[in-house]
Amino acid sequence: MEKELKGKVALVTGGTKGIGRAIADRLSDAGAIVVVTARSLPAKQQAKHPFIAADLTIANETDKVVTEINEKFGSIDILVNNMGGSTSPSGGFAALTDEHWERDLQLNLQSAVRIDRAILPQMVEKKSGVIIHISSVTGSLPVYQSLGGYAVAKAALNNYSKSLSKEFSPQGIRVAAVSPGMVKTDTMDTYLQSLAETSGLSIEQVTQNLMDSLGGIPLGRMALPEEIAELVGFLVSPKASYVTGVNYIIDGGSNPSL
Amino acid sequence: MDKSNKELSGKIALVTGGTKGIGKAIADKLASNGATVVVTARKPSEQEIEHHFIAADLTDSSNIVELTGKIIEKYGTLDILINNVGGTTSPAGGFQMLGDDDWNSDIELNLLASIRLDKAMVPKMIEKNSGVVIHISSLNGKIPLYQSNFSYGVMKSALNAYSKTLANEVAKNGVRVNTVSPGMVKTTAMETFLENYAQTIGKTVAEGSQQLMDSLGGVPLNRLAEPEEIANMVAFLVSDGASYITGANMLVDGGTYPSV
Asked: Using one digit for the tens of pLDDT, what is the confidence trace for B125-156?
């Protein structure tokens, strides 16, 4: 059977672990040529997909990535802006310095803006392309204790993604955001372990506490990275040809609002 | 093609209002993904041969009891419930045009029909700790249009709230509940409407269609959806690939909804 994404060139930023790796695997299974970026390959990991080392919080690394992909594989059809995260401390508003805010915005907003800017002209030229922004449910459900700057940056990313869709959908380019809730990545596992050690509670108990801090998750568990990747795989496929400008929340029901 | 290795093989699905338009596209898609599909409508359509058809008027609660009985008797269970039936016969012209009868019939068709059917079917899903319910809503539930669809939009908004509430309640029982909100869809009914509308305003169908898209604030993708494009979303949501999605309202509107 002909694969759905055969012949398509996809870029997944932050594609070596967690949600990004699951997305890269999913798109590759669907037939796409998938290029992944990250600052470095995780230790002991073999590159499963063509890999370009790049720190996309640095402006001039963006063009380098795009040029290299264009030279090796041609123009880019699918862009998944997956990189993001936060190294800011928890503890609320007063714990965040200018440097924390700048870092959160670079990592979650400006890196995506720059790479979109570098790639959009080739999509406009072909009048086709799909751009996905991996956001977070915290973008619409702020959690001030732990992720203030990150959540604000994701809310900004949602607004930016909607704006971009209004401008470029008339030219045949679909733009959508995906907002996962809690996802069981390696990073999450490490975080939960450290929480458990600090608090003296079991992993199960700290997991439950964290889910409760979101107001509870109706499905009663975290997402697997593969579940996020399935939604992204759908969105970038021709099956989602009328979907643009959306922010799809995939959170097991945890966002309490309509 | 052999159905046994498809994504939805072995699943029993019910699509209300499944003989035409979006409902028919959904029924066809679920069947081509391997499900056994039962469709309802008040009357069979002339070409209805592909799916198991049961005549039912879902605004009549005795019809729902009968429908549920027939499905359970024949298949023993239901895995996928698509509440697609809906619409409006209320007049355009805004608030003053709508009488109690208009409100009541919009409530029946767009809200109570789903609530009654869910009430009959969801317990079967809870029993086996698995099932998926979809409510087909409308962009009108999020973008009110007082001139043409006042009461319909209000009902779809109520349906969105109902769907989210049900999702919260039954997630622990293994049942996922989601809403799909299409924008303007190029169904046969829509085409007929556009032809009449074009005649009324003395313009071409293309101009009338553009005017309608403009009344929504513009459709960034600059066209109406095909029914299949809505069906694709529903097919994804009822599949195992969507196992972490519940309580969501998925817009499929070509970017029409203007807000973040």
From this structure: 999 999 999 999 999 999 998 888 899 999 99
Clarify whether residues B94 and B146 are in a common domain: yes
Task: Give the active site residue among B75, B146, B152, B244.
Answer: B152
Strand order in the sheet with B52-55: B52-55, B36-41, B12-16, B80-83, B131-136, B175-182, B249-252
Q: Annotated catalytic, A150?
A: yes
**DSSP assignment of B51-64, as one string?**
SEEEE--TTSHHHH
The set of residues, in sequence order, having a beta carbon less than 8 Å from that of A37 and lying 6+ positions away, is: A11, A12, A13, A14, A15, A51, A52, A53, A54, A56, A65, A83
Distance from CA of A43 to the nearest CA of B (A): 30
Looking at the fold, whether B205 and B177 belong to one and the same domain comes out as: no
Q: Check residue A6 and give its pLDDT.
A: 97
How many distinct helices (H) and strands (E) make up chain B? 8, 7
Q: Which residues of B touch A169 (CB under 8 A)?
A: 220-222, 254-255
Q: Which of B168, B225, B232 sits opposite A218 (nearest CB)?
A: B168
CA distance B81 to A253: 19
Question: Does 3.40.50.720 match the CATH number of domain A9-182+224-249?
Answer: yes
pTM of the model: 0.95
Counted domains in chain B: 2
How far from chain centre, in Å, is Cα B141?
A: 13
Q: Which pLDDT score is estimated for A1? A: 63
B1: pLDDT confidence band, cut at 50, 70 and 90? very low
Indicate the average pLDDT of chain B.
94
